[in-house]
Specification:
Blueprint (H helix, E strand, L loop, with lengths): L21 E8 L7 E7 L10 E4 L8 E8 L2 E9 L10 E5 L13 E2 L33 E9 L42 E2 L14 E2 L11 E11 L2 E10 L8 E8 L8 E2 L6 E2 L13 E3 L8 E7 L9 E7 L8 E3 L6 E2 L14 E2 L14 E9 L7 E7 L5 E4 L10 E8 L4 E7 L16 E6 L4 E6 L9 E7 L11 E2 L14 E2 L9 E2 L14 E2 L4 E10 L9 E6 L2 E6 L6 E9 L4 E6 L11 E6 L5 E5 L14 E4 L12 E2 L14 E2 L7 E2 L6 H5 L6 E2 L42 E2 L21 E2 L8 E2 L14 E2 L8 E2 L14 E2 L7 E2 L6 H5 L6 E2 L9 E2 L14 E2 L36 E2 L14 E2 L8 E2 L14 E2 L8 E2 L14 E2 L7 E2 L7 H4 L6 E2 L9 E2 L14 E2 L8 E2 L14 E2 L8 E2 L14 E2 L7 E2 L6 H5 L6 E2 L9 E2 L14 E2 L8 E2 L14 E2 L8 E2 ...
Parallel strand pairs: 9-10, 20-21, 30-31, 32-33, 42-43, 44-45, 46-47, 48-49, 50-51, 52-53, 54-55, 56-57, 58-59, 60-61, 62-63, 64-65, 66-67, 68-69, 70-71, 72-73, 74-75, 76-77, 78-79, 80-81, 82-83, 84-85, 86-87, 88-90
Antiparallel strand pairs: 1-4, 1-6, 2-3, 2-5, 5-8, 7-8, 11-12, 12-17, 13-16, 13-18, 14-17, 15-16, 18-19, 22-25, 22-27, 23-24, 23-26, 26-29, 27-28, 34-37, 34-39, 35-36, 35-38, 38-41, 39-40, 89-91, 92-93, 94-95, 95-98, 96-97, 96-99, 99-100
Length: 1604
């Protein structure tokens, strides 16, 4: 029940039943999760602003509590909504019941379920209570996990409460307890009435304990928990599992010391997995424990606050022994307890009796196998022991030992009942028997308990007296099916027949430890000593090596998977000393130091427990002596060297080395500085004064003594030289005043001032004496200046101080070697030079023809100049002219016919044949309608284009248009009335479709009559069909279904109802026998053919008989329209004009048709000027056409002309511009009157002009003034024939003045290398003096140099010039490895131009390192040691990883079991398994033939699945009837075996087929190709991983090979 006050959530107050007329009772049997349940009660109808009438949420109620509630309410309909937040209803049990005493059924309208009502989570079954009330609805559970809702409608009738209802407080502990009350007050629940209590804290241990309280209130406060009062932890063994029990008591009282969470875990190096009776698994948390020890924390839920014991199981499969375990708790007030620590000892099961043959010295839990396992066998027989450890299904296994010679069964197995406990069965065997061991399993799964989640079994058969293992079957090869057999063969007894004779004294060399009887063979006494002649303590007399008695050995445990031994242990026994047991908790290796002796052998015990046997083949053990030699090794290979578990015991002798002392050379003199007390042999290496022994170092000169041994103190190289600052050769860097390291003479030379330049004028020659000769320049040197010192000479040099005999006298003349009168002897120019002798007078033709401008007249001027046109191709060519004066007029060809269309007034020559084009009149306006492309003369006939629509079918057709411009608009029909409902603004033609009142237009629909207007367009509003009929129920045809009275009501009408009768009445509904037959005829009394007897008109009446055919004239003349043809139609109608005054009067016509045309008089001759096309009567007025000028203002006006022919003109005169009169008449004539008489001659009429034309009569403004100058343009006039304009060519000159100067190109800068003094045009060819080496064989040869100073050339120096800075050829910013600072040419040699530089390649240069870089030449200290292991973190070679390109779908469950995150080199040890197989982790694949075979790694990815095809079977099935095959057997089954792997030298390949082998390194380089390979020699390959590809039968198999 609840122990706290419940707050009501009802939104109404119930005072008394008198306010309502009914009531209900709600019973809720809550399930285990009351906080999920809630209900709401609404009064119907529910509006948006309505409030809830009543509701409840049971979050504060106890699990499984029954809650009753009485609610008064008004009768009527209510909606009740029941919710379950989780969606599973009442689970596992519970119900919701609504009742009252007056009604039998409160019916549900809808069952509760999901909110979408598709998967109900509550049912609707009914249930009867014991008191007879009917439950209207019971809500049961289903299993869902989304919110569920049930909605039900309750109809509540008026119901008065029973008289037995007495509301009141029913709790006798309440202050207002009412002993008469029978029910709680209205609107309250049982136990939650309006009772008044004394609430308070009732716990006497609380700080606020209230002794007056009668009801507890959850307000007690307690002191903080002070932690454990007492605590302890105990260890016990249950089989091979360790059980830990933590117990504690807390100080203080109250819930603060209740435990809220337990923290239990391991050291960080441990496997974080636990199992206890309360929980399994773990959840990491982030709280800080009360200790600083670095371990992993795991939090577990704690369900019982009153339990002060926490038990966990460790060991076995959980491998949590031998490591620190911690335990502490977190209290309710948030504080922590102290931490308990324990390191459990392993629980090892075995025989603990040392007197028994199966004694296990390391066992601490006896499993009962000691007793009864040893028997006494008769003579000649041997004892063997069958030791079987049952799997999980112990009762299925049995065995028998069979003598195959006789077929007799000589031993059978006992019954097995206990899993995992070895049972030993002794058997006596005759040595003559040939034994076979048969092992059976009646279920057919062998001893593979792990195949179904259990533990595998194991079988071991040994000969205890000999220590031989006859048969061993161990996991993981335990799924042998129903039967597996093994041939044991003959078993012979151990021992010898009779005592052995020999030397029994161990003091002699001949000593035999097996001898029992001394036969006198002890001859040579043992002399112990060192037998090694190279040792310091070699004893030439010794005959037996003295061995060290003990040493520190290393016991190395290894795990191939890298994940620990999972419960396997190793122990070492020597004498009475036990070492161990030891195991690997995590990782792949553990080293343990043991002090072992050499006197007696060591025994090694390996034993497994539980499932650890399934991974025992991963375990390895080594014993390594101090010298690093492995003296014992087992478990090196998981298939060929599997470690054998106990009871097999390994025995090995130990080697601690001999007592020989190696020779240690060194100094044995105690007085020497380097005396070594460990040295036993002097090698004359003693020294007494260590120091710097090289005079090349400064320390040699400063240490103050002469050293006899260099101790490395020579650090600073000495700088030899003169240290006197006043000396000539003072060296400020010198540190020793010696000449050199081998010459101690003072090197200083005194300073002597003077001129030291031997080329100077005042230099004093040297004597060779450094103490006399000048050695310091005092800037007094005078340079030697050679030259002529005679001032009367032409080449006198006033600066010369030494006459060199070069004086030359003055010689006057032309000194220019380019001049015609050059004097090579002259040295002084007298300005007499001339360069072009010739004609200098421009009035002679030679002046122009000599080709140059003469600067000296040589008398060649002979022929006078004649100016004119000298071009024979010109129109005005003058054959007498010898100089063209530019007056040439070219021939101008053209049409010279003034009547031709293309008459050219400028033409002076006609083409042959003539090119004149006749005039073609027509319209030449291309924009006109009648444009004539052939016309060349417009005759004024052009008709303008009138654009428009020319399609008469279009809306905008224009009959005046003559060119259709594409603007035609089609007729768009529609409503054009803008007031209409369907007005179409796009329509241009009204189609009478306008409507103004859209609505229902179909009288068959009701809306037609109800819309209130008459619609003229149906708008789709006709919806309800009209049911016309009579709606008057007094009428004969009353229709009760009619909705519109159509006035069809018919009273009961009597009459003839025979439709064949004359007086049949269609309205009659009662026949009265008055029927009259039909009498047909004309019944109209006014008709011409009236029949008084007729009662039925037959349409034969007529009233106007006459002519009825309009094709006869009587039809038109009779004056009326006849309705009956009486034969009076006689004369046919003739249509025409009947008016005799009209032009087309027809006297034959008898019926006018309105076609009369009046007389129209006029000229009807179409060839006449006044032709009238409308006239129909010619009146003789025709006038012929008279063409001429009709303009009275024209000069040639013709008053008789009536037709203008375009001949009018107004200014007669000369119209030809080729004549002078055209230009002189003063106006522009429009008619040639013959006044053109004188041809016009255009030209310059100024006689002073250069181009004056005396024939010209019209000055055309072309006069050019005379411009004198040089006219040699190098093209038209080229006097000097150089094809270039003269230096002073004047393009404006038109008269040659003889001043032309020929251009001489060259460098005009006298400071340049190629200065030309004759040049007058600088052509930019100046070349400055370029100093440099001009020797092409030199390094610094400069092809641009033109001047070579002395000693400037430098020879080639070949080498690497990459300094990483200015010359950084490879861009790495580093000098090359072989950088040569003296090199000037970056090539190998003169003949080898390749780059000699070797770039620095940083990396690991250690070839044994993991990241060895064969390309590196500079070691940067990044070498990483090679760590072998499994590096495949995700899956098999990436074949199964979904993000890999070679992902194989469907195999995502294959994972790696022994991934080593520390490994960087894959050694092929990865173990793969499928997590979906029944075998579990580390177990090989299941094969189809029920053979449980081990499969080597590097499985072809094609075969990585659980249903291997025949190819995979043949590739990897290594079992036959459960027994692993030999190598030969496997080769016989098409297997390809590759071993060993890893290898140090070669790989063997065994196959019955011929195979080809290729070897690739990890970079894809093809290293080895071998056909028909049996072995592959890899001894010369560097260590690493290689890809071995085997090709056979068209298939390729890949293997990763590790070369060590």
């Amino acid at each position: 029940m609840r122990n706290f006050f419940l707050i009501l959530f009802s939104l109404f107050t119930l005072n008394s039943f008198s306010q309502t007329d009914s009531w209900i009772k709600i019973d809720v049997q809550l399930d285990n999760w009351p906080e999920e349940t809630e209900w709401l009660l609404w009064h119907l109808p529910v509006n948006e602003d309505d409030t809830i009438y009543a509701d409840r949420w049971y979050g504060d109620y106890d699990d499984g509590e029954l809650v009753e509630l009485f609610i008064p309410l008004y009768s009527g309909q209510y909606r009740i909504e029941l919710f379950d937040e989780y969606g599973d209803g009442f689970y596992p049990s519970g119900y919701f019941l609504v009742t009252n005493e007056c009604q039998d059924t409160l019916a549900f309208v809808q069952n509760e379920g999901y909110e979408n009502n598709t998967n109900p989570s509550f049912g609707g079954d009914s249930l009867a209570l014991a008191n007879g009330w009917t439950i209207p609805g019971i809500i049961m559970n289903t299993s869902n996990n989304t919110p569920a809702m049930m909605i039900d409608t309750l109809t509540i009738a008026p119901c008065a409460p029973p008289t037995t209802f007495i509301p009141g407080c029913m709790d006798d502990e309440a202050l207002n307890y009412d002993s008469l009350a029978t029910v709680p007050s209205w609107g309250t629940e049982e136990g939650d009435t309006d009772c008044i209590f004394a609430w308070g804290c009732m716990d006497p241990n609380a700080l606020n304990y209230d002794s007056t309280a009668t009801h507890p209130l959850d307000n007690c406060t307690y002191p903080s928990c002070s932690g454990f009062d007492t605590s302890s932890v105990t260890q016990s063994c249950n089989g091979n599992q360790t059980e830990l029990s933590f117990q504690w008591l807390t100080t203080g009282f109250g819930p603060n010391c209740d435990v809220s969470a337990i923290h239990y875990g391991y050291d960080l190096n441990a496997t974080p997995f636990v199992q206890s009776q309360y929980f399994q698994g773990s959840v990491p948390i982030g709280s800080t424990p009360p200790t600083t020890f670095p371990y992993t924390i795991w939090e577990v839920s704690y369900f019982n606050n009153n339990l002060n014991t926490f038990d966990v199981k460790a060991g076995g499969n959980f491998v949590t022994e031998d490591i620190p375990h911690f335990f502490f708790v977190k209290f309710q007030d948030g504080t922590y307890s102290d931490t308990l620590w324990i390191t459990p000892d392993p629980c090892i099961v075995g025989c603990t009796d040392p007197t028994q043959p199966l004694y296990n010295p390391f066992a601490n839990v006896d499993n009962g196998i000691c007793g009864g396992t040893s028997i006494s066998c008769p003579p000649g027989e041997s004892e063997i022991l069958v030791i079987l450890t049952p799997d999980t299904y112990a009762g299925e296994i049995s065995w028998e030992v069979e003598d195959t010679i006789t077929g007799n069964i000589i031993a059978t197995s006992p019954p097995y009942n206990t899993t995992g406990i070895p049972v030993t069965t002794p058997i006596c065997i005759d040595s003559n028997m040939a034994l076979q061991f048969n092992l059976m399993d009646n279920y057919g799964d062998g001893m593979c308990g792990s195949c179904f989640g259990g533990v595998d079994g194991e079988v071991l058969i040994i000969n205890p007296s000999c220590g031989d293992t006859l048969y061993h079957l161990a996991p993981p090869n335990m799924n042998f099916g129903y039967l597996t057999s093994a041939i044991l063969g003959n078993v012979s007894p151990c021992g010898v027949s009779g005592p052995l004779a020999g030397c029994t004294d161990p003091g002699f060399v001949e000593y035999n430890p097996l001898a029992v009887t001394d036969d006198g063979s002890c001859l040579t006494p043992v002399i112990l000593g060192c037998l090694d002649s190279t040792s310091f303590n070699y004893d030439p007399l010794a005959n037996q090596q003295l061995i060290n008695p003990a040493c520190n050995y290393t016991l190395r445990l290894t795990d191939g998977a890298g994940d620990g031994w999972f419960g396997s242990y190793i122990g070492v026994v020597q004498g009475d000393t036990l070492y161990g047991p030891y195991t690997i908790q995590n990782g792949s290796q553990l080293d343990i130091n043991l002090n072992l002796g050499t006197i007696e052998p060591a025994k090694i015990y390996f034993f497994t427990q539980g499932n650890s046997s399934t991974t025992a083949n991963q375990c390895g053990v080594q014993l390594i002596n101090p010298e690093g030699t492995t003296t014992f090794l087992v478990g090196s290979n998981p298939w060929t060297d599997v470690i054998i578990p106990y009871p097999f015991v390994y025995t090995t002798l130990l080697d601690c080395g001999n007592n020989c002392i190696p020779v240690i050379l060194g100094c044995t003199d105690p007085m020497a500085f380097n005396y070594d007390s460990l040295v036993n042999t002097d090698d004359s290496s003693c020294y007494y004064s260590p120091g710097c022994t090289s005079p090349a170092y400064l320390e040699y000169h400063t240490q103050g003594f002469v050293a006899d041994y260099d101790d490395g103190s020579c650090l600073t190289l000495a700088e030899f030289g003169c240290m006197d600052p006043t000396a000539f050769n003072y060296n400020s860097y010198a540190t020793v005043n010696w000449t050199s390291a081998t010459d101690s003479v003072d090197p200083c030379i005194p300073t002597i001032l003077g001129c030291t330049d031997p080329t100077a004028f005042n230099f004093i020659p040297l004597t060779g004496d450094p103490f006399i000769d000048v050695n310091t320049n005092d800037n007094s040197c005078i340079p030697v200046i050679n030259g002529c010192t005679d001032s009367t000479m032409w080449n006198y040099n006033s600066l010369a101080n030494t006459d060199n005999g070069t004086c030359i006298p003055f010689i006057y003349g032309c000194t220019d070697n380019l001049a015609a009168n050059f004097n090579p002897l002259a040295n002084t120019n007298n300005n007499s030079c001339y360069y072009s002798p010739g004609c200098t007078d421009n009035n002679f033709i030679q002046f122009y023809t000599q080709g140059f401008v003469a600067d000296f007249d040589d008398g060649s001027c002979v022929d006078s100049v004649v100016y004119g046109c000298t071009d024979p191709t010109m129109f005005n060519y003058d054959s007498l002219a010898n100089i063209d004066n530019g007056s040439c007029v070219p021939f101008i060809y053209g049409c010279m016919d003034v009547t031709a269309f293309n008459y050219d007034p400028l033409a002076n020559a006609e083409y042959t044949p003539s090119n004149c084009i006749p005039t073609i009149l027509g319209c030449t306006d291309p924009t006109a309608l009648n444009y004539n492309s052939l016309a060349n003369t417009d005759d004024g006939s052009c008709i303008p284009i009138l654009y428009g629509c020319m399609d008469s079918t279009m809306f905008n057709y224009n009959p005046l248009a003559n060119v259709d411009n594409g603007t035609c608009i089609p007729f768009i029909y529609g409503c054009t009335d803008a007031t209409a409902s369907n007005y179409n603004p796009l329509a241009n033609t009204n189609d009478n479709s306008c409507y103004y009142n859209p609505g229902c237009t179909d009288a068959n629909f009701l809306q037609f009559y109800t819309q209130g207007f008459v619609a003229d367009f149906d708008d789709g509003s006709c919806v309800d069909s009209v049911l016309y009929g009579c709606m008057d129920n007094t009428m004969f045809n009353y229709n009760p279904n009619a909705n519109i009275d159509n006035g069809s009501c018919v009273p009961y009408i009597y009459g003839c109802m025979d439709t064949t009768m004359f007086n049949s009445d269609p309205l009659a509904n009662t026949d009265n026998g008055t029927c009259i037959p039909f009498v047909y005829g004309c019944m109209d009394g006014t008709a011409a053919n009236f029949n008084p007897l007729a009662n039925t008109t037959d349409g034969s009446c007529y009233y106007a008989p006459g002519c009825t055919d309009p094709n006869f004239i009587q039809f038109w003349n009779q004056g009326f329209t006849a309705d009956f043809d009486n034969g009076s139609c006689i004369d046919s109608v003739i249509y025409g004009c009947m008016d005799a005054t009209q032009f087309n009067y027809n006297p034959q016509a008898n019926l006018a048709d309105g076609s009369c045309i009046p007389f129209i008089y006029g000229c009807m001759d179409t060839t006449m000027w006044n032709y009238n096309p409308a006239a129909n009567t010619d009146n003789g007025t025709c006038v012929p056409f008279i063409y001429g000028c009709t303009d009275a203002t024209a000069s040639n006006y013709n008053p008789l002309a009536n037709t203008e022919n375009g001949t009018c003109y107004y200014n007669p005169g000369c119209t030809d511009p080729l004549y002078l009169q055209f230009w002189t008449q003063g106006f522009t004539a429009d008619f040639d009157d013959g006044s053109c008489t004188d041809l016009a001659v255009y030209g310059c009429m100024n006689p002073t002009s250069f181009n004056y034309n005396s024939l010209a009569n019209i000055d055309d403004g072309s006069c050019i003034g005379v411009v004198l100058g040089c006219m040699d343009d190098g093209i038209v006039i080229d006097y000097d024939g150089d094809g270039l304009p003269a230096l002073n060519y004047n393009p404006l000159a038109n008269t040659e003045d003889g001043t032309c100067i020929t251009k001489v190109f060259g460098c005009m800068d006298n400071t340049m290398f190629n200065y030309n003094p004759l040049a007058n045009v600088d052509n930019g060819s100046c070349i400055p003096f370029v100093y440099g080496c001009m020797d092409t064989t030199m390094f610094n040869y400069d092809p641009l140099a033109n001047t070579q100073p002395a000693n400037v050339c430098v020879p080639f120096i070949y080498g690497c010039m990459d300094d990483g800075q200015g010359n950084d050829f490879n861009g790495d910013g580093l000098p090359a490895l072989n950088y040569d600072a003296t090199a000037n040419t970056n090539q190998v040699s003169a003949t080898d131009v390749s780059d000699p530089c070797i770039s620095q390649v940083f990396g690991c240069t250690d070839s044994t390192a993991f990241n060895y870089d064969p390309l590196a030449n500079v070691d940067n200290g990044t070498c990483i040691a090679t760590v072998y292991g499994c590096t495949d973190e995700y899956d098999f070679q990436g074949y199964l990883y979904t993000t890999y390109p070679n992902y194989l779908p469907g195999f995502s469950t294959v994972v790696v079991d022994n991934y080593d995150p520390n490994a960087n080199t894959d050694d092929g040890s990865c173990l793969y398994y499928d997590i979906n197989t029944v075998t579990g982790a580390g177990i090989p694949y299941w094969l189809n033939d029920s053979c449980y075979a081990w499969v080597v790694y590097e499985v072809d990815p094609y075969c990585l699945n659980n249903t291997w095809d025949s190819f995979c079977q043949s590739q990897y099935n290594y079992c036959e009837y459960g027994t692993p095959l030999s190598l030969d057997d496997m080769v016989g089954r098409d297997q390809i075996l590759v071993y060993p792997n890893p290898t140090r030298d070669k790989i063997n390949i065994k196959s019955k087929n011929e195979v080809d082998v290729d070897v690739y390194d990890l970079l894809g380089n093809h290293i080895i190709h071998q056909k028909k390979a049996k072995e592959v020699d890899m001894i010369n390959l560097p260590s690493g991983i290689y890809d071995l590809r085997i090709t056979f039968k068209g298939m390729i198999i890949n293997h990763k090979i590790i070369k060590q």
